[in-house]
Amino acid sequence: MRPEPLFAAIEPLRTEGATVILMDPAGERLTDAMARDLARDAHLALVCGRYEGIDERARGLADREVSIGDYVLTGGELPALVLIDTVVRLLPGVIQEASHEGDSFATGLLEHPQYTRPEAFRGMEVPAILRSGNHGEVERWRRREALRRTLERRPDLLQAASLSDADQTVLDELGREDDDGS
After folding, report:
1. Burial status of residue 120 (CB atoms within 10 A of its CB: 0-12, 13-18, 19 or more)
2. CATH fold of 3-88, please?
3. Is residue 111 flagged as an active site residue?
């Protein structure tokens, strides 16, 4: 994209409280923590390049460059939509705050498995603990399963996660279970 229309479009947006974000595969990777940070900004302006991106001279107009992953798309519109959805859902009143506090990445872990009705479907049962009514046990089960899922699918996340001594004990137990083949 040529510099003239980019400067004409972006310069008026550079107001106090505004953050101009260039969607670019070379940018910092979008994370839950970044989305939470951006949700606190008063105004976001997203710049989306096409094909080969934008003229290098316009790059300095952006406060941040953001990527949604290590791949290239034909334009920045889809990454902008991903960023919008990731940020908007964190704004007060969009969804209940408690709804996203336990989501994957909010605590540094993947989320625990989810179950709905019916209690049994094609021979697959909702775990008994979730039907027990014992809220403390349910919470312990959910934490253990979040740790299990993260260990199995994204162990890289565990290095940065805030883990308690009890969490570390659970991870040690899960590791022994894997070693035993159980």
Report:
1. exposed
2. Alpha/beta knot (3.40.1280)
3. no
Higher pLDDT, 77 or 103: 77
Whole-prediction pTM:
0.81
What are the boundaries of each domain within the chain? 3-88, 102-180
Answer yes or no: 89 catalytic: yes
pLDDT of 101 over the 80 cut:
no
The answer to whether residue 14 is catalytic is: no
Summarised one tens digit per residue, pLDDT across range 108-141 is: 899 999 999 999 999 999 999 999 999 999 999 9
Task: Name the catalytic one among 36, 89, 140, 142.
Answer: 89
Architecture of domain 102-180: Orthogonal Bundle (1.10)
Burial class (CB in 10 A: 0-12, 13-18, 19+), 36: middle
| Annotation marks residue 64 as catalytic | no
